[in-house]
Write a structure and sequence with these properties.
The protein is 22% helix and 42% strand. It has a 7-stranded antiparallel beta sheet. Strands 1-4-5 form a 3-stranded antiparallel beta sheet. It has a two-stranded antiparallel sheet with strand order 11-12. The protein has one domain (7-186). It starts with 6 loop residues before the first strand and ends with a helix. The chain has 187 residues and is an alpha+beta fold.
Amino acid sequence: MSSEKIAVAAPALIAVAAVVSAAAFQLGSHGANGANGRFWQARQAATDPLQLWSIEAVPQPAGWRPALLCTDAVLRSGFAHALPQLDGRDCRPIGDPIQEPGRHALRCRLGDRTLGVSSTLKGDLSKDFVATFSISDLDVIGDGHEAYRQVRRYSLVGSCPAGWLVGDATDRHGVRRPSVTRRLSAE
């Protein structure tokens, strides 16, 4: 696996695809600023207010800023779990995950490899916590070889700025990047 790159996408990122599909359908041809778009934005605000979260690697690389991400409950639900991907292919779970307070672990198949994926959480999931994600290659003799480890700190900043949609974010340089939803609704 050393020659292969394994990307870890929090299910939050996978959930973005579902949110994007639903939002693109809901926004329809009226776009985010049309009557239909305003209706869905008002409904979102009433049922699940958008929250702005700061997400940073620990330790944060020099010169990088924490990313800011506008979220709803679906997107936030994925902050605590990692799912490996390789060349766009998801790791397929084997059996049921182990779920305990502050810990989530599962085995999965990615190509011809069996991986162990785990996350541990420390802090208050509603406002400030640290998530440690690790992936081990279980095909290696012994207890497995940790192939990947990442620690992220998630901190609630407050409400999303006016005009931001679910998935709008800043990059590591602090530059705002519109969500896929926004790009689809503008087309």
